[in-house]
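Changelog excerpt

This revision adds worked examples to the README so contributors can see how folded entries look when concatenated. The first example is reproduced verbatim below.
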Amino acid sequence: MRRCKFLAIGLFSVICLQTKAQKIATFEVQLPAATSGLTIPASIDLNDITFIKDSSLVLQEVTGSAVKNIPYQIMQGDRRTIYWSVENDGKIKKRTYQLVKGTPATFSHIAADNKDGALTIQAGNKNLLRYVFTKDYPPAGVDSSYARSGFIHPLWTPGGQELTRIQAPDHYHHYGIWNPWTHVLFEGDTLDFWNIGGRRARATVRFAKFISVTNGDVFSEFEALHEHVVLKDKQGNGPEKVALNELQTVRVYKPEGNDGSYFLVDITSKLSCATQSPFHILAYRYAGLGWRTTGFWDNNNCEVLTSEGKTRANTDNTSARWCIVQGALPDNSYGGAVMLSYPGNYNHPEPMRIWTLNTNGRGDMFANFSPTKDIDWVLEPGKTYVLKYRFVVFTGKFDKAKAESAWQYFAAPPKVTVKK
């Protein structure tokens, strides 16, 4: 039986002075650098610690004599992994946790709602991100070949403002957050999987199926298979052929910070050839992870800052580890997102495509990590290639120190040490 002397009772957690629950393990999380107030994801392999069933595990943070139950999430796979979020006040560089046997506390949930051809990830009553897996057609009167599936729209700020746009009249093939390749040599033919519309369009990207959908107390995640499809040959004939498979994993963490002012989105793409032919991505000025931002932004109300100190006026054709895009939003609000590139990505720090201040005459905003902007990339059969990105989505304003801290802990997650 577990007994505690209560200090305080909150909606989702209990703080105790002592507990007689069976302790399984104690571990420490090292935070070598300031987090600028950001909460950091942490994880540890459970296989070498315990095989007690998930429903009998309680994760607690230990601060002096106080013990607090905290939310966690266990993922099953080749290895059994427990995930949680590490809070930091900027002063404590080491956090201590213990895993005990007991009855888990109840915490708020983050989950994906599958409805009307889209998967919407929600925390409480807030929509955070929507993934569209059915084919979305352009407006009436526009060539239907611009339709596609397998993209993120909307991405909302924690305050509920949309940060993405699809099918803008200037670029009907723009789809919120999406990541096709523009200039590809495949089986002797040069193909474009980005500019999908019009009479010359001979390739596209489409959703094939979900591999998994996972919900929990820490994050909601889905794995989706995307197919990069050759629709027609040079003569305009079929049959179609899948040239590249992409396993895309999107993980959305519960909002954190004051009043849930920000949340994290991890996007991981695993690319593999679908045939015995290589998929040769040719250098081109845009390709890869693109973000067509809200139409509310123009050159008067949004700003850009990169890890190299570049602004919207001079970011295009430069490379960066991270990029902040933020600005004014409807209802007198402010917000945006930081795009983070993982150091293991091809051609990191990655070249960027940022629309100039006079784009479309008003300064519409588009941001793109384009690893093949200045160099080819040959994907060979039998191999898997991985690209990882993180978005920090926020309400309010973000600064350089926070962006740098977010990238440092994305590039090198905190070290977790198990204590005997």
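The second example, added in the same revision:
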Amino acid sequence: MTRLDDDRFSAALLDLGLVPGAAQSPDDVLSRVAELADAALGHTPALSVTVVRDDGTPATAAASARVAADLDVVQYRLGSGPCLEAATRSRVVVVEDTGRPDQWPELSEQAAAQDRRSIVSTPFPTARPVVGGLNLYLSRALAGDAPARERATVFARHAVVPVAGALAHALTARHAEDLQTALRSRAVIDQAKGILMERFRLTADQAFDALARVSNQTNTKVRDVAVQLVDTGEFPPV
């Protein structure tokens, strides 16, 4: 380990603190983190982000290389692996040498076949609203090299912060957009109900039932039926 290696590693950690996780997409943030991983650790690590949905199913939200996404899928299929262990149990998991399979032999075999000799999976900070973790698939084994293992785990612990921040920001933005869409839908439905209530002397519940009936008959969303009524005034007899 040279002084130049130390300097590159320190510089990469400092640069991680400048990655604007809340201002970029998860893909853009992961791409930048992958560049810094290469600078800090060498050998162009492949990175992926595992998220666990509300129903408990895992998915890969972003990946810097196809091999990372493919190895994630192996673990999802098996229902076990470092990415799932880290995400669901909130602990750092290290596979030091996939060439000497131990706990996850099938995953290790497939990782080694794709020149991924070690794996580091780090959970998101527990305060984040997203359950998941960051996975590093390295092309060098960490077994027997304590400094290299330390560097990989320290880097992962730092890198997971902007990645988790980007996902949390994206989730918040999506929820805000969904809320705005729901409010717009409710407004137009209320307008349509008012038209029906006046035209056919219906109660509010009866007006909504009429919209729902046409929706079912035409295989159209209630909102779209309401928009059609508000825009054209056309509606079948109640």
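Reviewer comment on example two: The beta strands are 46-52, 58-63, 93-95, 118-123, 132-138. The radius of gyration is 25 Å.
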